[in-house]
Design brief:
- This protein is an alpha+beta fold and 110 residues long.
- It is built from five helices and three strands.
- It has a three-stranded antiparallel sheet with strand order 1-3-2.
- The N and C termini lie far apart (52 Å).
- 15% of the residues are buried.
Length: 110
Amino acid sequence: MGTDRAGDGWGALADGTRRAILERLAEGPQPVGRLAAGLPVTRSAVSQHLKVLKDAGLVSEQAEGTRRIYRLNPTAVAALRDQLDTYWQRALGGYKDVAEDSDDSEEEKS
């Protein structure tokens, strides 16, 4: 998953319904009807959300008879997680630097 695709993934996950769909797909492959059950949107809306997730590379589909089965793309999800881990490590490093600078400033005042 390239950088542009990762950006699409974050944008796709900005919507709560799409996050809910991804959570359901984390349980295993499912048809749109099962994904739509219990969501506060229509089946048609779920299909539109699935298209956004597919375009972002987070979800794939496979025809099984007359239905389409949707599943997570584990490679794409892992790429987003790696990106998030990178952000988290940078943030922790930044906090550490600030804390160390603060400690150094306090020692200089003493």
